[in-house]
Amino acid sequence: MTEKTSLVTQEMLECKGVWGNEKVSYPISESDIRRWAIAVYWPKTPPQLFWDAEYAKTTKWGGIVAPEDFNPFAWKVPTGEEGGLPFDLPGLIGGMILNGGTQETYLTRMRPGDVISSKLRLASWEEREGRSGLKLFSKYETEWHNQSGDLVKRTIGTTIQY
After folding, report:
1. Which of 24, 84, 93, 98 has its CA 20 to 30 A from that of 114?
2. 65, 49 in Cβ contact below 8 A?
3. Cα separation, 142 vs 103, whole angstroms
4. Fold assignment, 1-28+79-162
5. Cβ pair 54, 1 in contact under 8 A
6. Per residue in 124-155, pLDDT tens?
7. How far lies 145's CA from each of 4, 31, 161, in Å?
């Protein structure tokens, strides 16, 4: 019989709920939004809301907005490039790590001129015994805010480590 050993590290205990380094995007341009929409909707034409300023003025948004899945961090960012957590994932030091899924909640739409900041923290974890031994299910929370402090998006990602 195998002795159960916790996969939770002292670093995890100390860092639970602590936000990691912040990343800050370049200002979002209309061109960024248009190119993202073209790529996402290809080969179809993207909705006018994402590329036609005159049309977008007539919508409830009053101007061009980005698709909700737009990522201003898809290219190099000017500050906080390291980002991430203030500790190493224990599953990366030997053992296995699996993606357990992601849940995204979209709140405020991104617009041309917005500068988005992103931060990440270890929100919670749970250990469970499985057929292949002890498993650690960790939830990591990411928040994006615009320059006005409005919450743009919240992501909860789960990792499974054993």
Report:
1. 84
2. yes
3. 10
4. Thiol Ester Dehydrase; Chain A (3.10.129)
5. no
6. 999 888 887 888 899 999 999 999 999 999 99
7. 41, 21, 29
Write the single-letter amino acid at 36: W
Q: One-letter amino acid identity for 20?
A: G
Q: Is 101 helix (H, G, I), strand (E, B) or coil?
A: strand
Q: How does residue 94 score in pLDDT terms, banded at 50, 70 and 90?
A: low
Instruction: Take residue 126 and report the two structure tokens written for it.
Output: 């749970």
Structure tokens at 59: 């919508």
Candidates 146, 139, 143; CA nearest to 161 is 139
The owner of tokens 């929100």 is: 123
Q: What is the pTM of this model?
A: 0.83
Phi, psi of 22 (to 5 degrees): -90, 140
Length of the chain measured in residues: 162
Scanning the structure block, which residue is given the tokens 């195998």?
A: 2
